[in-house]
Specification:
Blueprint: H1 4-11, E1 17-22, E2 29-34, E3 43-47, E4 50-54, E5 62-68, E6 74-79, E7 85-89, E8 96-103, E9 106-114, E10 118-123, E11 129-132, E12 145-152, E13 158-164, E14 175-176, H2 180-184, E15 192-195, E16 199-205, E17 214-221, E18 227-234, E19 237-243, E20 253-260, E21 267-271, E22 277-281, E23 289-297, E24 309-312, E25 316-321, E26 326-330, E27 343-350, E28 354-364, E29 380-383, E30 387-390, E31 399-402, E32 406-412, E33 421-430, E34 439-443, E35 447-452, E36 463-471, E37 477-481, E38 487-491, E39 499-508, E40 511-512, E41 519-522, E42 528-530, E43 536-540, E44 553-559, E45 565-574, E46 585-588, E47 592-594, E48 600-604, E49 608-614, E50 623-631, E51 639-645, E52 649-655, E53 666-673, E54 680-684, E55 690-694, E56 702-710, E57 722-725, E58 731-734, E59 739-742, E60 754-762, E61 766-774, E62 787-790, E63 793-796, E64 805-808, E65 814-820, E66 824-831
Parallel strand pairs: 10-12, 25-27, 42-44, 58-60
Antiparallel strand pairs: 1-2, 3-4, 4-7, 5-6, 5-8, 8-9, 11-17, 12-16, 13-15, 13-17, 14-16, 18-19, 19-22, 20-21, 20-23, 23-24, 26-33, 27-32, 28-31, 28-33, 29-30, 29-32, 34-35, 35-38, 36-37, 36-39, 39-40, 39-41, 43-50, 44-49, 45-48, 45-50, 46-47, 46-49, 51-52, 52-55, 53-54, 53-56, 56-57, 59-66, ...
């Protein structure tokens, strides 16, 4: 926008100068007129169809020039004195006008104003109206604008009929209306349409010059259309029915317009509206979807068109097939052309107690499987309820058994065009009878024998079917058996001890029948054998690829005619470990179960032995292997056993057993220390009746000793336990030199109860002194069983302190006993001067010259 200050400065230089600002988008124009103070004021007002110019009172001879911008149209008006109003008609030349006021050839002022081109028109039955482009029949110029608002004067049941009158390549250029595209799309010879609206609005705006155009608008009576349109399907026909309630004209026709989906090309059938029915032939498009609608027409206009009705033409067939016969089916046009968007069905029936078997020979629903994008899965052949073969289905089965005597086959196609279609056959076959006969199963060494009675019914058998599985496995083993056979042997060599579930059924061309009841049987595992003395047999759990299986039960029975026992030696064992061996285990008599990885031997104290191997429903480990040997039982226990303490150890003696002494293979001397759990053993031969226990490493310790006779299978009962202390202490003579008494291994702690005894004599008086008493932990109280006993007088080690001293007279015997476990003590003995006098107490054998300090 030009600023007014700038315009004012230019006005001082140029008289009669006008500035024009034009919007870049040509939506509006703003004019600023610069006038001197003596310039006459002129006003312009645009009205519909004319421009009004108002002038002030004057006494000059003025001229007004009017020109339409962009055109050659120009007009001039001489203004008389005191004439204050001028009218310029703009109907034929709407546009942007330039109005100039001129006095004596000089330009006083210039005005810019757009002419108003707006029409309000009311039409009736007798009145029509022609809309023309500006300056018609001449070409129009740029910048022209007009609007027309046309309505019907309250006319009921009437339409607008609009026709294009000019013949030009650019139809209605610069005109704008909702129906322009529809009107201009018609052929030149019939460029007219009908509008059902009550009013219409047309605008004209030219951005550039163009050829003249004109439109004729008329009011015509509304044309009725057929009502109650319905369609029904019959064989190869769709029947169209309608009702006509409108006015009959000489050239009135009812038009049936239809197409076959997905084609968008419509066909038309002209009918007399009074016929009210028409049969549409569908034999060439069976099972396809039709779109049907109707409208009425006369020679110059058409009624409103009804909405399309969709109806699928009939494509249904019903076929009966007798037993052992067959029929062939194929899609329409096979093998040349597959009808698109069709829906066909075939209902197939056969005899009772007969099945249907479908053989698919060929199927091709798309000819563009390798093309760009492939073919969508929208065309499908449906066989019964569960078999669906669609476009692009790969590796479909060739045969389908339908266990029923009736089925429906349906074909639904989509937009794929070019496929071959399908070809198949259907045969009525025997349904299999149920297996109701009894059959027998028997487990033998490495097999299960299955036997049954041959079938004698009316059906034609193809095979017997034996089905079995190994519990707890899920997989079934299916074995077809020739119809002339009535037995079968199941090899169980690699599945010994496992549970088998077996059933039988009949097989006809109609498939496998209802099977028999399931019989459960366990494959044989184990053996029964007789052993004599010294004989052995190996027992091994069954394995597959080095591991035992689940749900296995094996049993081995060992018997003997003699009074023998058995000894089982594990060579290897690897069985799933569990608490109390509740999962997998090997079991011996008296409920002794073993699992894990233990080794060793098991003694069976009976002439009959049963060994069982049991696994649960999972497998783990390689099982077990062992040798069982028949041996003599043990003898009775040794007799007259004694235990004697010596300076270097304990001497054990006994006599041979009373019962079965010949079964003795040796003797076992067992012993342990009082304060320890570990048991030590000595083994001597069967003809030796004494043994020596070396106790030098355990002086003063209490030993527990017992004896048993060793047999081939086990030891005999043990003798009673004998107890004795090992040798500790000695006889001592006190001379001039100092001697010592101490607990064993002083000053080390052994934590073993020791009891030692010394006898002391001296020709001189002597003293007993406590040199050192040592406890391992001062916080631990010394047991009352630990003591120092001097001549039968017991002194608890709890009360003994370092430095305590006892004095004794010469030539009187002294007995010293020490019992300790956790306390170490060191005592010294030393002679003293002989002139000292020993006082005696009536209650003691001797009294110390000097009591404990």
């Amino acid at each position: 926008m030009v600023q007014h200050s700038r315009l004012a400065r230019k006005a001082k230089v140029m008289r009669n100068y006008s500035y024009i600002y034009i919007n870049p988008h040509l939506q509006w124009i703003h004019t600023v007129s610069v006038c001197f103070s003596d310039m006459t004021d002129m006003k312009t007002i645009a009205h519909s169809g004319y421009i009004e110019i108002l002038l002030p009172p004057h006494h000059s001879n003025w001229t007004i020039e009017a020109q339409v911008m962009g055109t050659q149209f120009k007009s001039a008006f001489d203004i008389e004195r005191n004439q204050t109003r001028v009218v310029i008609h703009t109907d034929k030349h709407p546009g942007l006008y330039v109005i100039r006021l001129i006095e004596n050839g000089s330009l006083y002022t210039t005005k810019y104003i757009r002419a108003v081109c707006q029409k309000q028109i009311q039409l009736d039955w007798q009145r029509s109206y022609t809309i023309q482009s500006p300056e018609f029949p001449l070409s129009y110029h740029a910048g022209m604008r007009c609007t027309w608002n046309i309505s019907k004067d309250g006319l009921q049941s009437s339409w607008f009929k609009i026709s294009v009158l000019e013949d030009s390549q650019n139809c209605l250029t610069s005109f704008q209306m909702d129906f322009k595209d529809e009107l201009c799309s018609k052929e030149n010879k019939n460029k007219s349409i009908v509008l059902i609206d009550d009013a219409m609005f047309v605008t004209f705006y030219s951005r550039s010059t163009g050829l003249a155009s004109s439109i004729l608008v008329e009011v015509v009576p509304e044309l009725s259309f057929p009502t109650n349109l319905t369609t029904t399907v019959n064989t190869d026909v769709i029947t169209v029915n309608w009702t006509w309630n409108g006015t009959y004209y000489d050239d009135l026709l009812c038009v049936i317009e239809f197409s076959v989906y997905p084609s968008e090309i419509s066909s038309r059938v002209d009918m007399n509206c009074s016929d009210l029915s028409y049969s549409l032939d569908t034999s060439n498009h069976r099972g396809q979807r039709y779109r049907v609608r109707m409208f009425a027409k006369t020679s110059f206009w058409e009624s409103q068109k009804l909405d399309y009705l969709e109806q699928t033409s009939e494509c249904r067939n019903e076929i009966f097939i007798s037993r052992e016969n067959q029929t062939y089916l194929s899609s329409d046009g096979y093998p040349y052309h597959l009808q698109p968007f069709s829906n066909c069905s075939w209902k197939i029936n056969t005899d009772d107690d007969t099945y249907l078997k479908v053989y698919v020979h060929d199927i091709g629903f798309c000819s563009n499987l390798q093309g760009a994008g492939g073919c969508p899965e929208t065309t499908c052949l449906q066989i019964d309820q569960n078999i669906r073969l669609c476009t692009g289905t790969q590796n479909f089965k060739k045969e389908y058994l339908l266990k029923q005597n009736s089925t429906v086959i349906m074909l639904n196609t989509s937009r794929e065009i070019g496929g071959r279609g399908f070809n198949l056959s259907i045969k009525a076959v025997d349904s299999p009878p149920p297996f109701i006969e009894q059959f027998h199963v028997e487990s033998q060494h490495d097999s299960i024998n299955v036997t049954w009675r041959p079938y004698t019914g009316p059906k034609t058998l193809q095979r017997y079917i034996i089905t079995y599985r190994i519990v707890p496995e899920v997989a079934y083993h299916v074995v077809p058996i020739h119809v002339n056979t009535s037995s079968y042997v199941i090899d169980t060599n690699s599945r010994r001890g496992q549970m088998f579930a077996v059933r039988l059924s009949y097989l006809t061309e109609g498939g496998e029948g209802i099977p028999s009841v399931i019989k459960i049987i366990r494959a044989a595992c184990g053996f029964t054998t007789v052993l004599r003395h010294g004989q052995s047999v190996v027992v091994t759990s069954p394995t597959i690829h080095g591991h035992y299986q689940a749900n296995v039960f094996c049993k081995w029975n060992i018997i003997s005619s003699q009074s023998l026992w058995y000894k089982f030696n594990f060579n290897s064992i690897d069985i799933e470990n569990s608490t109390l061996c509740l999962k997998d285990y090997v079991e011996f008599p008296t409920n002794r179960k073993y699992c894990g990885n233990r080794t060793g031997s098991v003694v069976i104290r009976n002439s009959r032995a049963t060994i069982a191997f049991v696994t649960d429903d999972s497998n783990s480990g390689s099982g077990f292997n062992g040798t069982i040997t028949a041996l003599y039982p043990p003898s009775s226990k040794p007799l007259n056993h004694t235990l004697t303490r010596t300076q270097y150890g304990l001497l054990v003696q006994w006599e041979k057993p009373l019962v079965d002494p010949s079964f003795v293979r040796g003797y076992r001397i067992s012993y342990k220390l009082q304060d320890e759990l570990e048991v030590y053993e000595l083994i001597v031969s069967a003809n030796q009746y004494s043994a020596f226990i070396n106790t030098r490493n355990y002086p003063g310790s209490l030993f527990d000793v017992w004896i048993s006779a060793i047999g081939e299978t086990d030891d005999s009962e043990t003798t009673g336990h004998m107890q004795s202390y090992s040798e500790c202490g000695k006889d001592m003579v006190i001379n001039k030199s100092m001697q010592f008494i101490s607990t064993p291994f002083y000053p080390e702690h052994t934590n073993v109860t020791c009891r030692c005894l010394w006898t002391v004599s001296s020709a001189r008086n002597y003293t007993l002194s406590i040199i050192n008493i040592n406890r391992p932990n001062i916080s631990i109280n010394t047991s009352s069983n630990e003591y120092l006993m001097i001549n039968a007088r017991k002194h608890s080690l709890q009360n003994i302190r370092n430095g305590m001293q006892f004095t004794f007279a010469a030539n009187e015997p002294l007995t010293v006993e020490i019992r300790s476990k956790k306390t170490n003590i060191l005592v010294s003995l030393q002679a003293i001067q002989s002139h000292l006098t020993i006082r005696r107490d009536a209650n003691s054998a001797q009294m110390p010259l000097k009591g404990p300090s």
